[in-house]
Automatic annotation (TrEMBL):
GO terms for molecular function: metallocarboxypeptidase activity; zinc ion binding. Belongs to the peptidase M14 family. The keyword 4Fe-4S does not apply. Pfam families: Peptidase_M14. One of its GO terms (biological process) is proteolysis. It comes from Kitasatospora xanthocidica. The active site is at 326 (proton donor/acceptor). Residues 2-356 form the Peptidase M14 domain. This is Peptidase M14.
């Protein structure tokens, strides 16, 4: 199998840290997975006299979306090699100069966490290719139904977790409180899973993170905040913390609710999503769409909305704009096509990082 297995993803991350000791740092996540696996992340960037802003990128959250790990491992390797050799980077028709690469790694720290859900990826690659959740049996209640194992990690973050209260009765958020939901079971409580607590820990370790990208598949989109409803920038009180709007969220095209996002943040989010799509388009002409998460489908408990929500809930936290890449048109493209998608998405991500300046 040309896709990396979980041992190979972990060893790729570790060998990059070994090969580039001056510009990378291996980070060990504190919580083992449900099945006891320790995960690692990689911080890359040129040493700097002052703390730098940070872009955090995670992948391998949904088990079956195999190529997400490869996308992040290759991007880290490409940037480290180009910086060491003083070269630029070329992805098909999208080209970055040596100056751009050097400036990027001087200005920013990039934190890559390519395999958030190792248990799920192993199960998907060896037992059930379409497996999505982690492998937590805790909420199966002794059921022998295999669907009752696991939590959808990208519904387990603390954002409108009580979706039954938050959303309108007629809304259709893609989330479930039923442990036997095969796809989108949110878990018994926000951050019930070690894998999502690891992501939260990583954010806490890098308080200067300003941008967060969660790499998923599929639909050829670049999603930005918010995912629970349409965006609005005129009524600050109409927001996810305000219980006055419980039972009103999640409906398209209505006036009862839209999620508040300050105008400058809304504009920046769109610009960055467009930059990603432009960089990607240059590789071989694919047209990914910049969309708010809600325009894919309404959600709660996702990583991108959680990271952006943090500074509204706690003003001590820095502001983090959240994004979700949805690469490709299937979960397991033939490897030859996946290699092209890696180039597409990595070009988009480099352009995205440059656009944060
Ligand atoms: Zn996904």
């Amino acid at each position: 199998m040309p896709y990396l297995n979980i041992t190979e993803v972990e060893s790729a991350v570790a060998s990059l840290a070994t090969a580039y000791p001056g510009t990378s740092e291996l980070l060990t996540l504190p919580e083992p997975s449900i099945e006891g696996r320790t995960a690692h992340a990689l911080k890359i960037g040129a040493p700097a006299p002052v703390p730098k802003s940070c872009v955090m990128m995670i992948g391998g959250v949904h088990a079956r979306e195999w190529g997400s790990c490869e996308i992040l491992v290759h991007l880290a390797a490409d940037l480290l090699e180009a910086q060491r050799d003083g070269t630029g980077l070329g992805y098909g028709g999208t080209v970055f100069t040596a100056d751009q690469v050097r400036n990027l790694l001087q200005r920013l720290d990039l934190v890559f966490f390519p395999l958030v859900n190792p248990d799920g990826r192993l199960f998907s690659q060896t037992a059930d290719p379409m497996w999505r959740k982690n492998r937590d049996p805790a909420n199966a209640g002794g059921s022998t139904n295999p669907d009752c194992v696991g939590v959808d990690l990208n519904r387990n973050y603390d954002f409108l977790f009580d979706f039954a209260t938050a959303f309108a009765p007629t809304a259709t958020p893609q989330v479930s409180a039923d442990p036997c939901d095969q796809q989108v079971y949110e878990g018994p409580s926000a951050f019930s899973e070690p894998e999502t607590r690891n992501v939260r820990w990583l954010l806490d370790q890098f308080p200067r993170t300003g941008w967060f990208v969660d790499v998923h598949s599929y639909s050829q989109d670049m999603l930005y905040n918010w995912g629970d409803d349409e965006n609005q920038s005129v009524t600050p009180a109409m927001n996810f913390r305000n219980s006055q709007y419980d039972g009103k969220r999640g409906l398209p095209g209505d006036v009862a609710y839209a999620e508040y996002i300050p105008k400058t943040d809304a504009d920046t989010a769109v610009l960055l999503a467009e930059a990603f799509c432009q960089g990607l388009h240059g590789v071989r002409g694919l047209a990914y769409k910049p969309l708010s998460g809600f325009h894919l489908y309404p959600t709660s408990g996702t990583s991108d909305d959680y990271v952006f929500a943090r500074h509204f809930v706690d003003p001590e936290q820095g502001k983090v704009l959240g994004f979700t890449v949805e690469w490709g048109t299937q979960f397991h493209p033939p490897w030859a096509e996946m290699q092209r998608i890696v180039l597409d998405v990595d070009a988009g991500l480099v352009r995205f990082c440059l656009a944060t300046a």
